[in-house]
Design brief:
By secondary structure, the protein is mainly α. The protein has one domain. It contains ten helices and no strands. α6 crosses α9. The longest helix has 21 residues.
């Protein structure tokens, strides 16, 4: 926590945070949030936004081939009238009614972060690396959806304690920390 508080004071923070908040607006435009009536070209462009997690395009086209199912899944994901555990399970778990092979937590959490940047943090390799460094262990037996939900709750508390503005600030910290651990000066 003290590390994060300190890092939020670095000169690079403001630029990195702004790039992430701008990226959220761009993602919403590309995906036609919240109706999600985007085109294949827009889906490709969404995958090209590196802020809040670089999505590796290996599954991108396969996921989009199930266009109707994908758009239904994304609309469900942001439907606040339904409990989050049901939405996450439906989209992320193998037995979920909206599950699509290749639509994984990195993409789902990125969309949730764009949906509500005060509440839903992204989960990707830099996040996982940083959490592991600080000794975080996900709950066992909770499934992908349950592990993400537990992580999101923990990050709400972490953001309060360290003064993070939103999940964009949190993502900047995780990225900065993970890249710094690799020994290179991170790009914001």
């Amino acid at each position: 926590m003290n590390q994060a508080k300190h890092d939020f004071q670095k000169p690079d923070f403001k630029d990195g945070w702004k790039r992430r908040t701008d990226a959220i607006e761009r993602m919403k435009q590309l995906l036609h949030y919240p109706t999600f009536d985007f085109s294949g070209e827009e889906w490709v462009e969404f995958y090209g936004i590196y802020e809040l997690g670089h999505l590796i395009p290996i599954y991108r086209d396969r996921v989009f081939r199930q266009e109707k199912r994908l758009k239904d899944a994304l609309r469900l994901l942001v439907d606040e009238t339904k409990p989050i555990d049901m939405r996450l399970s439906s989209v992320l778990e193998r037995s979920g009614s909206h599950q699509i092979s290749g639509l994984r937590l990195n993409t789902v959490s990125k969309i949730l972060a764009a949906h509500d940047p005060s509440r839903w943090p992204v989960y990707n390799s830099p996040v996982e690396s940083t959490l592991r460094h600080f000794g975080y262990r996900p709950p066992r037996g909770a499934g992908v959806a349950g592990r993400y939900e537990a992580y999101a709750k923990l990050m709400q508390e972490f953001m309060k304690q360290c003064g993070a503005k939103d999940v964009c600030a949190l993502d900047w910290f995780f990225y900065w920390f993970a890249e710094g651990k690799k020994g290179s000066k991170p790009k914001t």
